[in-house]
Amino acid sequence: MNLGAFLIRRLWQMVPTMLGVVLLVFFLFNWVGGDPAYILAGKMANPADIANIRHQLGIDRPLWEQLLIFVRQIVTGDFGNSWATQEPVSAIFRSRLGPSLMLLIPMMLLETATAVAVALAVAAWRGSTLDRALMAASTVMMSISLLVYIIVGQYVFAYLLGWFPVKGWSDDFWRNLTTYAVLPVLLGLMVSIAPSVRLYRTFVLDEIGQDYVRTARAKGLSEVRVLLVHVLRNAAIPIVTNVLMGLPALLTGAFLLERFFAIPGIGREIILAVERSDFPIIKAATVYVAMATMLANLLGDLLYHWLDPRVHLE
Amino acid sequence: MLLSVRNLQIGFQTGKETPFEAVRNVSFDLPECTTVALVGESGSGKSVTALSILGLLPNRITRMGADSRILWRGKNLLDQGEAELRALRGREIAMIFQEPMSSLNPVFTVGEQLMEGLRLRLGMSRKQARTRALELLSEVGIPEPGRRLDAYPHQLSGGQQQRVMIAMAISCQPSLLIADEPTTALDVTVQRQILELIRSLQQRLRMSVLFITHDLALVNEIASEVVVMKDGQVREAGSREAVFSSPEDAYTKALLACRPPLGERPMRLRVIDDFLNGHSLQDIPLRYRGSDPADEIVLEVKNLEKGFPVREGLWRKRLFRAVRDVSFQVPRGKTVGVVGESGSGKTTLGLTVAGLLQPDGGEILFRGENLQVARARDPVGFRRRIQIVFQNPYASLNPRFTVGHILTEPLLLNDIGGTAAAREKIALELLSRVGLPRDAFMRYPHEFSGGQRQRIAIARCLSVKPEVLICDESVSALDVSVQAQVLNLLQDLQDEYHMSYVFISHDLSVVRYMSDQVLVMHDGAVVESGDADELFAQPRQPYTQELLSAVPKPWNP
Amino acid sequence: MPPNASPGLWTLAWRRLKRDRVGMISLAVVVAYLCMVFLAFGGWIAKDWTREVGVNYAPPVFLPDDQDPTAVALVKPVAQPDQVDLYGLQDPLARQLAQIRAHDPVGAQQPIVARRLTLPLGGDKWGHDVLTKVIKGSETSILVGLVAAILATALGTLMGALAGYFGRWVDDSFNWLYGVFTAIPYLLLIFAIAAVLQQKGVSTIILILGLTGWTGVFRLVRAEYLKHKSREYVLAAGAMGASHARRMFIHILPNTSHVILVQLSQNVVGFIKSEVILSFLGFGVPVDVVSWGSMLNEAQNELILGKWWQLAAAGTAMAILVTAFSLLTDALRDALDPKLKY
Q1: Contact map slice: B 46-65 vs C, CB within 8 A
Q2: Other CB atoms closer than 10 Å to residue A147's CB: what's the count?
Q3: C-side interface with B, Cβ within 8 Å?
Q4: How many CB atoms sit inside 10 A of residue C278's CB?
Q5: Contact B442 C241 (CB under 8 A)
Q6: Residue C239 is nearest to which of B354, B438, B441, comparing CB atoms?
Q7: What is the mean pLDDT of residues C260-264?
Q8: Residues A110-130: pLDDT tens digits?
Q9: What pLDDT was estimated at residue B177?
C-alpha cells in the first residue's frame, strides 16, 4: 500500500480517538468540575456577577451547545483569553513553545545517543561485573525522586558552586542554549537516562538472542560488526519508535524543570494554570498536546514501517 | 582426516548447580569429501556437538572436558583463540541451520547479506561481490536471481530462504558444511529439493558435509557414514550400509523399526522398550484398514467452507478461503486421514469440525443432525461428542492445573461421575489406561515429557467418552520413538472404544499407517481422496504423486 | 491417593525467589516498610508528628556539634498572629487550621514548652521531629501508591481480559478508551483532573491515580489474553464445554498472574512517584497531611538555609523503598517467568 493511502487511513482512524479526548476534556471541565463561574468571579461574587459570567462563558446554555462551542474553539484554535492574565490563549502557547523545545530537543538527542551507547556496551558484556554494576546503579538512580535531583542539582551546581545561573531566561537564543538551558537539560538527562538504558538493553539483548546473530558469527564476522551492524540495525526499530512515542512523556518531565528554573515554557504555564484554575489554558493544552501525541505516534508508526521491511503499510 | 572429534565432553553451567552434561565422551571422524550424518532425537547433544566445532557455544556457561579435542586438519580447535576460530568460520567451515527464516537477518536484503561475506572475507569489490552473489544464487537454483538479490528474506518462501543460507555458506568455498536439521522446518516436497541441492553441491564443490538430523530416512538418502547419538553419547557409528543393514545397538534397531513402514501395516509399531528389554521380536500380525459400504456413518462433512478476512488495499477486505468445499464421511470406529503441506487448510478443517471455529458455509452432520443446530439445542450433550488432541504437548495442558484437575474438570463440566470421589476414581482409571502411573494425579504438567503430556491430553478427551477424536498433528512434535508409542496407544483405544478418528498430519507414512481413508488437501481443497492403501499405491493426481515421490526412501538393500 | 503432592508453579516460583538473595533482601525491606505503615496507620507510632518537640530547625543528633544532645531550651511559643481581615474575606485555610489546632492541643496551647536542641533526624521550621514526620509521610505516600495501584491494576486487568478474550467490538471499544487515555500525557491528565476537582484529599488522589493509571496493565493483560485464548489448553477447555467466564478467569487468569503481579508492583512505584510530585506542587494531599511530597516541598526552601536534613530524610526513605520495590519486581519477574521451568 502506498504512503498516501496509509496516511489517510491512519488519520481517519484518529478521528474517534480525538473525539474521545474532546469528550473527556469536556466532561471533566463542564460536568465533573462544577460551575467555573464561582472560580472566575473570585471571592467577592454577587449573584448578578455570576449570572453575567455564566452568560459570557455560555454555560447557561444546554450541554450540547456548550460542546459545540468547545469544538469550535478547538477547530479555530481560539480558546479566548486566559482567565488569569487576559492574554489570548493562542498567543500564550505561541510564545511558550520555543523555550520548551529548547529544553526538549537537546534532551532527547543527548538521551538517545548516551542511552544507546551505554546499552550496547552493557549488552556486549552482559553478565559481567560492569553490566551488573551499571544495572544496579540505574535501579538506584531511578529510585531517587526527580524532585531530589532538581532541588539538589540546582542548590549544588547553581547556588553553591555558581557554575550555572540559578534560574532565568533571556531573549537571546544562544545565551539561552549555552547558559540557561544547560543545567536543566543535564538534570533532565540524569532522570531519564537510567530507564532508557534499561529498556534499550533489553531490546539489544532480545536481538542478540536471535538466530541471525548466530548466522553472522558462523560467517566469521567480528563481534564488533555483529553488534554494530546486525544487532543495532534491528534493535534500532523499537528504539526509534520508543523515542518518538516517549516525546510527550519527556514534555511532562520538563514541566518541573521549567518551573524550578523559571523557564517560560508550556510546562510552567500549565502548572501555573492549574494553580490559578485557569481553565481555558488547561483545556487548550490538554487537547493540543493530545493531538501532538497522536501525531508523534503516527510518525513513530511511519518510521517503524520504514525501518522494518517485514511490516507492510496497512 | 579433515575433522576428528575426540572425547568431546560439554557441560553447561547455570548458577551454582552441577553442570548439565550435554555431550559425554563423543568421538567420531569426518574424512574429506564425504557426508557424515549425526543422528539423534531431541536432547541427544547432536546440535551442541556441531556448534562446538565452530566455537559458537556461549563461552560464559560452557564447560569443555579437559581431554576433549576437536582436530581440524590435525590442529586442536579448542586451543585456538577467538581470532583463529573466526578466520576459520565461513572460510573453512560453514554452517546452515534449521529455521532459515530466523537465521537470516530480517532487515538486510538477500544481496547485502551474501555480499557481506564476499567483501569482508574475500576482499572483493562491491561490483565483484554483486556478480559473484548472482552466480551463487543461480548455483543454488533460485529463479530470477537478479530480482531476488534485492529482496528481503521474508519475501522468499521457506525453501528459497534455505537456498540463500546455502548460497551464503558456500560463498567462500568451505571444506566443511555443517547442516543442522536443514530440512526439518520445510514441507516434504521442498525438503526433497534441498536434499538434492546439498548432495549435488557436495559433489561439485568437493566438500565434506556434517548432516545433523533426527530422521533416519533422510540419512539413508544423503550420508555415507552415520553416527547415532542418544543422551549425549555415541551409540553406534559406521558406514551407512553397516548401520542400516546390521545395526548392533538396541537403540539404533529401535529407531529403524519404530517408523511406520510405507509398504505394510503391522498391528502395532515396535517401540524402544521392545528392543531394550529384549522382548520377542517375531513378526507382528498385519492389520487391514479400508472402507466398507456397511460402515455406519458417524460424522458427515458437506461442502464445508471457512475463510478469514485479509485486509487488501485501503479499505477493502478480502476473504482468504482456508477451507474450500470440503466433503467427507467418517464411519464409526474408522480413521479418516487428512494429509497436506503447510497452508493446505488441514488444521482449519480440524478446528471447524471440532466446533472451535464457526463454518462459513456447508454443513457438519453428526449422526444425520446438523451439529450447529444440535449444539444450540443441547450444548452439554453435543459438545463432548467430538474432541480434539492438538499438536503442541506443551501448550495443550494448563500449566497451573494438576493432572488430576485437568482430568476431572471435563467430568465436572459434563456432569459425569456425580461425586468428587467418583470423578477421582474415573480419572485414575484413565491415567492407567493411557499408561501413566497413579501418582501423576497430583503432579503438574511441567513435570512430564512431551509424550507423557500427549497421553494426558488423550486421557482428558477420553474422560467425556467422545465418538469422534480429531488428532491435529498430534504426534508431529514428538521424537520418533515416542511417536510410535502414542500411535500404538491411539490404535489400542480405537480398537477398545470404537472411536472414529480424523487424523491430520503432514507426515505421509504416519497418515497411511493410521487411516482407512485419506484426503489429500492442497490450498484448502481436497485434491484426491480414497482408501488409504489404494491411494498410496496408485495416486491419480499429479500433486499426490509429487508428494509421495518426495517421501524419503527407507533403506532397501 | 498418593500423598506426595508435588510443588505447583507458585511453590516453584517461591523457591526460585528464595534463592535470589537480592530479591529476598528487597522483600524484607518492603515488608518492613509495610509494617511501619500498618503501625502508623493504626496510630501506634508517629501519632503526634504535629508536636513541636524541638527548636526551630533543630539539627540531627549525629551532627558534630558542641551542643549537649540532651539539652533543652525553653521557648515561648510564637503568638498566633491576629487574623488579618482584608476585604471582609475569610482565610480559606482558617477552618483547617482551626481543626489542626483543635486536634493538637499540646502544640498550640501549652504556654512554655521544653524543646530539645537536637532531634534524632533533626527538626523542621516549626521544630517538628523529622523522624516521626518521615514515618507519617511514608504512611501517606505508600498507602496512596498501594491502594491506587490495586485499583488501577484491577481495572486494567478486567478491561484487558474482556478486550483480549472477546475481541471484535468489545476490543474495539476498550481500545478506543485506551487510545483516548494514552493520547493525553499521564501527568497532564492528572493535572487537568486536579485542577477541576477543587477538594483535596487522600482519597481524591487515590481515585485520580487509580482511574488514570490502568492503561499499562490493560495493554499487557490484553496481549496476554489474545495470546492465551487461542492456546490449545483453552481451546480444549472450550471443546469440553467450559463457559467463557470459566475459560477467562479459571483457565487464563492464573496464567497471566505473573504479568499482573509485576505490573502491580511497578504501578506502586510509579504512583508513589506521582503522588510525591503532585503533593510537592500542592495538588496532592491537603495541608494537614504529611507526605514525602509535601516534605520535599518544605525542604526545598530549607535547603537554601543549609538545613538539609528534612530533604535527606524524605529523599532517602523514598529511595530505599523504591529501590527495594524495583529490585523485588525484577526478582519476581525472574522467579515467575513461566519460560524457566525449574
Answers
A1: none
A2: 26
A3: 1-2, 4-9, 231-233, 235-242, 246, 251, 254-255, 338, 341
A4: 24
A5: no
A6: B354
A7: 87
A8: 999 999 999 998 888 877 788
A9: 92
Q: Is the pLDDT of residue C340 over 50?
A: no
Provide the total of helices (H) and of strands (E) in chain B, helices listed first.
Answer: 22, 21
Which residues between 84 and 123 in chain A have a beta carbon less than 8 angstroms from any beta carbon of chain C? Answer: none
- A305 to chain B, minimum CA–CA distance in Å? 11
Q: Tens digit of pLDDT for each residue in B60-117?
A: 788 888 889 899 988 888 888 888 888 889 889 999 998 888 899 988 999 999 999 8
What number of other Cβ atoms are within 10 A of residue C138's Cβ? 24
Q: In Å, how far is B76's CA from the nearest CA of chain C? A: 35
- Beta carbons within 8 Å of B326's beta carbon, 6+ residues apart: B301, B303, B304, B345, B349, B362, B519, B521, B524, B525, B526
- CA neighbor of B555 nearest in space, from B257, B266, B245: B245
Reading the block at residue B240, the C-alpha cell is 551407512
Scanning every residue of chain B, which has its alpha carbon at the shortest distance from the alpha carbon of C340?
B446
Whether the per-residue pLDDT at C2 is higher than 60: the answer is: no
Who's near B347: CB < 8 A, 6+ residues apart?
A: B472, B473, B504
Cell, residue B390: 492438538
C70-99 residues touching A, CB cutoff 8 A: 87-89
| Inter-chain CB proximity C240 and B397 less than 8 Å | no
C73-103 residues labelled b (16+ CB within 10 A) or e (exposed): eeeebeeeeeeeeeeeeeeeeeeeeeeeeee
Whole-number Å distance between alpha carbons of C118 and C113: 15
Report the 10 Å Cβ neighbour count for B377. 10
CA distance C123 to chain B (A): 48
| C-beta of residue C130 within 8 angstroms of C-beta of residue C58 | no
Rounded average pLDDT over B534-544: 88
Chain B residue numbers touching A127 (CB-CB < 8 A): 60
| C4, C240, C251 member nearest B464 (Cβ) | C240
The strand pairing partners of B243, in sequence order, are none
CA distance B117 to B124: 9
- With a cut of 90, say whether residue C156 has pLDDT above it: yes
Residues in C closer than 8 angstroms to B443, CB to CB, are 6
Q: What is the pLDDT of residue C108?
A: 46
Residue A275 near chain C (CB below 8 Å): yes
ipTM of the complex: 0.81
Contacts of C193 (CB under 8 A, 6+ apart): A28, A32, C208, C212
C-alpha A138/C-alpha B199 separation (Å) is 54
Number of Cβ within 10 Å of residue C111's Cβ equals 6
Residue ranges of B 418-457 with Cβ closer than 8 A to chain C: 424, 438-439, 441-444, 446-447, 457
- With an 8 Å Cβ cutoff, are C195 and A282 in contact? yes
Cite the DSSP H helix spans in B11-59: 46-54
Mutation target to probe the C interface, by most C beta carbons within 10 A, among B371, B388, B398 is B398
Question: What pLDDT does B478 receive?
Answer: 83
Residue B557 has a pLDDT of: 52
Complete domains list, chain A, with CATH: 3-76 (no CATH), 91-307 (1.10.3720.10)
Torsions phi, psi of B416, nearest 5? -110, 140
Q: pTM value?
A: 0.81
Per the prediction, chain C carries an average pLDDT of 79
* Alpha-carbon span A149 to B160, nearest angstrom: 56
Q: Are B103 and A212 in contact (CB under 8 A)?
A: yes
Task: Compute the nearest-CA separation of B243 from chain C (Å).
Answer: 37
Test A143 with C303 for CB contact under 8 angstroms.
Answer: no
CA pair distance C127, B164, nearest whole angstrom: 77
pLDDT at B336: 92
